């Protein structure tokens, strides 16, 4: 990619054919939210509605996430939402490791541009690629991990909560932790 900028990133992503997922997309889906956010949420990949609208997390799972964030008084200026892969996998299947790998540099570029202090992995694809391939999401969720000055937390993907009610409480508890950490980080940054 050329010099790191949002414009160059958008161009590179929309022209990308680095993995087979480009074949099924209507359009690429980069991200939504504040580009100077303190928190970044990272999901798996676009679904049908995301593919149609060009925005991540706009389907049922996204609406659930939005309601949860609003209930915990997250300010939209404080978060940005993206996915590991930018093109919709066929039939919404899980992206293959090779597809995630091919796309990760775009996510890294988003991290470099947004410069979040907190990254929340939503589901096992984000967790595996960003935090650890060793532990399952059920075991790893809710724990803070510091990597290169960024705090990582993994939790369930909102789509999993729509299939399994029992995941809702732990997800809510994890988001509450993120909300508290956001306040702490902002208090520190304000004091710097
Ligand atoms: S998923 Fe990522 S790497 Fe694959 S074609 Fe789309 S933008 Fe390129």
Topology, pairings included?
Blueprint: H1 6-15, E1 31-33, E2 39-43, H2 48-53, H3 60-71, E3 79-83, H4 97-114, E4 118-122, H5 124-130, H6 137-140, E5 144-147, E6 150-155, H7 158-163, H8 168-191
Parallel strand pairs: 2-3, 2-4, 4-6
Antiparallel strand pairs: 1-3, 5-6
Would you summarize the structure shown here?
The chain is an alpha/beta fold. The protein has helices at 6-15, 48-53, 60-71, 97-114, 124-130, 137-140, 158-163, 168-191; strands spanning 31-33, 39-43, 79-83, 118-122, 144-147, 150-155.
Describe the fold and architecture.
This protein is α/β, with parallel strands linked by helices and 192 residues long. The protein has a single domain (29-187), classed as Uracil-DNA Glycosylase, subunit E. The protein is 45% helix and 15% strand. It is built from 8 helices and 6 strands; from the N terminus they run H-E-E-H-H-E-H-E-H-H-E-E-H-H. It has helices spanning 6-15, 48-53, 60-71, 97-114, 124-130, 137-140, 158-163, 168-191, and strands at 31-33, 39-43, 79-83, 118-122, 144-147, 150-155. A 6-stranded mixed sheet has the order 1-3-2-4-6-5, with helices on both faces. Strand 5 and strand 6 form a beta hairpin. The longest helix has 24 residues, at 168-191. The radius of gyration is 16 Å and the shape is globular. The mean pLDDT is 96.
């Amino acid at each position: 990619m050329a010099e790191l900028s949002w414009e160059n990133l958008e161009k590179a992503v929309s022209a990308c054919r680095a993995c087979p997922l480009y074949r099924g997309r209507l359009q690429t889906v980069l991200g939504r939210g504040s580009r100077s956010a303190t928190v970044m949420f990272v999901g798996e990949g676009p679904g049908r509605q995301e593919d149609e609208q060009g925005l991540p997390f706009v389907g049922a799972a996204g609406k659930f996430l939005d309601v949860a964030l609003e209930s915990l008084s997250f300010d939209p200026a404080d978060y940005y939402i993206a996915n590991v892969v930018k093109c919709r996998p066929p039939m919404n299947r899980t992206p293959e490791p090779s597809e995630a790998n091919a796309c990760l540099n775009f996510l890294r570029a988003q991290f470099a541009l947004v410069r979040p202090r907190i990254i929340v992995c939503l589901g096992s694809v984000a967790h595996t690629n960003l935090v650890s391939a060793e532990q399952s999401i059920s075991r790893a969720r809710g724990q803070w991990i510091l990597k290169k000055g960024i705090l990582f937390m993994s939790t369930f993907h909102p789509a999993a909560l729509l299939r399994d009610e029992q995941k809702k409480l732990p997800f809510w508890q994890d988001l509450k932790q993120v909300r508290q950490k956001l306040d702490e980080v902002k208090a520190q940054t304000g004091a710097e």
